[in-house]
Specification:
Blueprint: H1 3-23, E1 26-27, H2 28-37, H3 45-57, E2 61-66, E3 74-79, H4 81-108
Antiparallel strand pairs: 1-3, 2-3
Helix pairs in contact: 1-4, 2-3
């Protein structure tokens, strides 16, 4: 992933993870796997786990500890009402930015 992609992803990864959680609850490794399935292959697990700590601290998710077949219980994250509101705002903002960027691109061609 190039430097531009990395920088842009920093500002949007929180919304992307919340979008993943809006589909179904998931644990950290599962979220990382889903990101990779979507083409975000260079995202480190540590980045995802740090983001999960932040969105938990900010009250955007509910966390349930679920027994694991191997090792300690897993933390399963699910989107809560404040998280849904944050995600809705993210999509509005994303739509605005995409429209403006599309217009700029069109004008530049």
């Amino acid at each position: 992933m190039g430097r531009q992609m990395t920088e842009m992803l920093k500002g949007t990864l929180e919304g992307i993870v919340l979008a993943i959680l809006s589909v179904q609850p998931a644990y950290g490794y599962d979220i990382t796997a889903r990101l990779r399935e979507q083409g975000f292959t260079d995202i480190a697990e540590g980045t995802v786990y740090a983001l999960l700590v932040r969105i938990e601290r900010n009250g955007l998710v509910e966390v349930e500890k679920v027994p694991s077949e191997k090792g300690p219980p897993r933390k399963v994250y699910s989107l809560n009402t404040p998280g849904r509101a944050y995600l809705d705002e993210f999509w509005v903002t994303w739509g605005f930015l995409a429209d403006r960027l599309g217009q700029l691109k069109k004008e530049g061609n």
